[in-house]
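A reminder from the course coordinator: this example appears on the midterm review sheet, so study it carefully.

Given structure:
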């Protein structure tokens, strides 16, 4: 809300459809007699309120008005020496100011253009490990989507409607982003498939604690250690070495998966 002095009246600007606007309309209709009501304006005249009601209304306006710098406006409001014109203005919130634009330049490079400095900083921090270039003078940065983490971070971010207490909209080419979705699904499937194979290789189950799996892993690598067949020919040594390495990779993969759960 903003209060100002015009030539022959005080001017109070209230955002339409806000809680302040609903309060003013309710207050005027129930407590004030001398009033002129138009579609977007209400005018209160001098001596239109009882002193107690006028005092309450003045107190409420003082508490709600932003950046009230001139004390004489308060004096005029308290005395109601001038008519008070209340104008209900349309919302000044511009959703486009918080629109984040995404542009896929090729299969692995995404350009992000953010509208504010704090959002620029947010995306810079989020994708710091995948940065190709930091924000330029056009508030755009380039990120590499070849890693699973950057892809995961992107899709989690696209689900959000608010970032840093700001309402955000994401604008992008749906066909291009759809391809990214397909890649994410493919990655998720291959990851699940690889994890399943790792558990099978270690003769383990996903719900078992890592300590139990570790004991079984140690037993298996002891069984398939290449040194056990050192004197049994090159082919057998090669088979045991391959199995040994597969067991190591499987355990590392399961251990990493358990940490991220």
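Designed residues:
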């Amino acid at each position: 809300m903003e209060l100002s002095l015009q030539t022959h009246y005080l001017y109070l600007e209230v955002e339409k459809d806000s809680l302040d606007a609903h309060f003013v309309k309710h207050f005027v209709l129930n407590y004030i007699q001398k009033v002129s009501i138009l579609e977007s304006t209400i005018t209160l005249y001098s001596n239109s309120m009882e002193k107690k009601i006028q005092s309450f209304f003045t107190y409420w306006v003082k508490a709600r008005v932003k950046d009230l710098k001139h004390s004489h406006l308060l004096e005029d409001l308290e005395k109601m020496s001038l008519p008070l014109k209340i104008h209900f203005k349309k919302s000044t919130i511009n959703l486009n100011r918080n629109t984040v634009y995404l542009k896929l330049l090729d299969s692995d490079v995404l350009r992000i253009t953010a509208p504010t400095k704090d959002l620029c900083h947010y995306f810079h921090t989020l994708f710091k490990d995948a940065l190709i270039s930091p924000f330029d003078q056009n508030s755009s940065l380039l990120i590499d989507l070849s890693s699973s983490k950057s892809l995961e971070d992107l899709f989690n971010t696209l689900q959000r409607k608010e970032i840093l207490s700001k309402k955000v909209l994401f604008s992008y080419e749906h066909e291009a982003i759809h391809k990214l979705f397909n890649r994410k699904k493919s990655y998720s499937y291959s990851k699940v498939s690889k994890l399943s194979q790792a558990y099978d290789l270690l003769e383990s189950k996903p719900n078992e604690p890592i300590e139990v799996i570790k004991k079984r892993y140690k037993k298996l690598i002891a069984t398939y250690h290449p040194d056990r067949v050192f004197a049994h020919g090159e082919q057998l040594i090669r088979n045991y070495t391959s199995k040994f390495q597969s067991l190591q990779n499987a355990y590392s993969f399961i251990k990493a998966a358990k940490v991220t759960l």
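Residues 188-260 form a domain with the Helix Hairpins fold (CATH 1.10.287). The chain has three domains: 2-89, 95-172, 188-260.
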